[in-house]
Design goal:
- It is a single chain.
- The chain is an alpha+beta fold.
- It has one domain: 4-Layer Sandwich (Penicillin V Acylase, Chain A).
- Helices cover 26% and strands 20% of the residues.
- An eight-stranded antiparallel β-sheet has the order 3-4-5-6-7-8-9-11. Strands 10-1-2-12-13-14 form a six-stranded antiparallel β-sheet, with helices on one face.
- Bound molecules: zinc ion.
């Protein structure tokens, strides 16, 4: 059986599977995606299709020298299954590190920070790995799916077996890894160190993920694969980085923070090529969102080459409004323009950046201090929902943001419900 491209899979969904079994969808990216036997292939394809629909997040980072604010800006569209929901809470300082069933117990933080939390869960309460945290030190943590869809041999979706480097200890780290980082990090750089140390100690259980860890001065993308394999790279100060759901680090460069296994292969090694085929990023599923943000936000007309550009120098200084326009785009005025009523895909099977499943759009405008940081959040599709401003550590929180014991109860239940 030929490898299915992500669009073939999406079409499979279109043609026959209108409703996915939620349990299968939920396990996407976890054990079931790593090893699926042939007799379950149809259901898995359907799950992958739903998940592709579900997890088409878009991320964007702006270096401080090309930012109109003079500081880093990061942004994200959280795309998922349209009926899923997001709600907000302020986790107080000193909250425990909650365990996740079947996964390693992360040691508690010496001093756990207060964290603003954007909680993503399914309609029946299952948490998804789409949570966003912004902590009292002004450190932002969110993620995109890593999009490793290519390793399909008709029987299995898997990453290469690389012995110890593709192993986990005691079930490995689950979706609470980012909370552990958010509770501890005083800077983005320290957040990278905390995350990679945890990954080296315990291994990362899901298939792949691209974490954004940012503060007012720098943004790091930590691209983590199952086990103990990762590369973290900083977005240069004079560049922007646009990232859909694919690995965007190719050849290892000086300054990259790599797991020892990856570092040992420096010089001969292309991270993205090793763990995902070129079709992953060249698929219209990812390509148009990734290159679309470079075009719409940064004025760059990038053609698909042999590798995906991790970062590029923008054609002009980037403002908060430039980014909002990008996150809200349906490629208006181009041949790929999609119907604003969100049919999802036109005849060319192109994914808009603002999608039917966009549950939340966020632009983080860092300030000089954490109290000055403004999160611009559209609680739904940003083409039709206004961006509201939140200052998580700069005064009163809006009504509806859970605090204190209620916030702790929510996050405790969140991780308890993970599987
Ligand atoms: Zn829209």
């Amino acid at each position: 059986m030929a490898k299915p491209e992500i669009n073939d899979i999406i079409l499979t969904l279109k043609q026959g599977k209108k409703k996915m079994k939620s349990k299968c969808v939920m396990k996407f990216g976890r054990k079931h995606l790593r090893k699926v036997n042939a007799c379950r292939a149809v259901l898995c394809l359907a799950a992958l299709a739903a998940a592709a629909n579900a997890v088409a997040c878009s991320g964007f980072a702006v270096g401080k020298k090309v930012s109109a604010t003079g500081r880093v800006i990061v942004a994200h569209n959280e795309d998922n299954i349209p009926k899923h929901r997001i709600r907000h809470a302020m986790i107080p300082a000193g909250a425990p590190q909650f365990d996740e069933p079947g996964h390693v117990s992360i040691p508690p933080a010496e001093r756990a920070c207060a964290c603003f939390w954007s909680e993503l869960k399914s309609a029946d309460g299952e948490p998804f790995p789409g949570d966003l945290f912004f902590n009292e030190n002004g450190v932002m943590v969110y993620s995109n799916n890593g999009g490793v869809y290519e390793e399909w041999d008709g029987k299995t979706f898997s990453l290469p077996d690389e012995g110890y480097w593709s192993s986990c200890t005691d079930g490995g780290l689950g979706i609470n890894l980012r909370f552990a980082v958010a509770q501890r990090a005083r800077t983005a750089r320290e957040g990278v160190s905390i995350m990679t140390n945890l990954v080296m100690t315990f291994g990362y259980e899901p298939l792949s993920r691209i974490f954004t860890i940012a503060d007012k001065d720098e943004t790091w993308l930590v691209q983590v694969l199952h086990g103990r394999r990762y590369v973290a790279r900083r977005c240069p100060d004079d560049a922007v980085a646009s990232y859909p759901n694919c690995l965007t680090i190719g050849a290892i460069e000086p300054g990259d923070v790599c797991s020892p296994y990856i570092a040992a292969q420096r010089g001969t090694f292309d991270f993205a090529a090793r763990y995902q085929g070129p079709r992953t990023w060249k698929s219209p599923f990812n390509l148009h969102r990734g290159l679309g943000l470079y075009r719409i936000v940064a004025g760059l007309d990038v053609k698909a080459g042999e590798t995906y550009p991790f970062s590029l120098k923008p054609a002009h200084m980037i403002s908060i409004d430039d980014i909002k326009r990008g996150l809200s785009s349906h490629y208006e005025g181009t041949p790929h323009e999609t119907n604003p009523k969100h049919p999802e895909k036109g005849p060319k099977v192109v994914e808009p950046i603002c999608r039917r499943g966009t549950l939340e759009a966020m632009v983080c405008e860092f300030g000089e201090t954490p109290a000055d940081c403004v999160l611009h959040i559209a609680k739904g599709r940003p083409c039709e929902t206004p961006f509201m401003t939140f200052r998580p550590f700069g005064g009163a929180l809006p009504d509806g943001v859970a605090t204190g014991e209620e916030a702790i109860k929510r996050i405790s239940e969140h991780y308890k419900a993970a599987r």
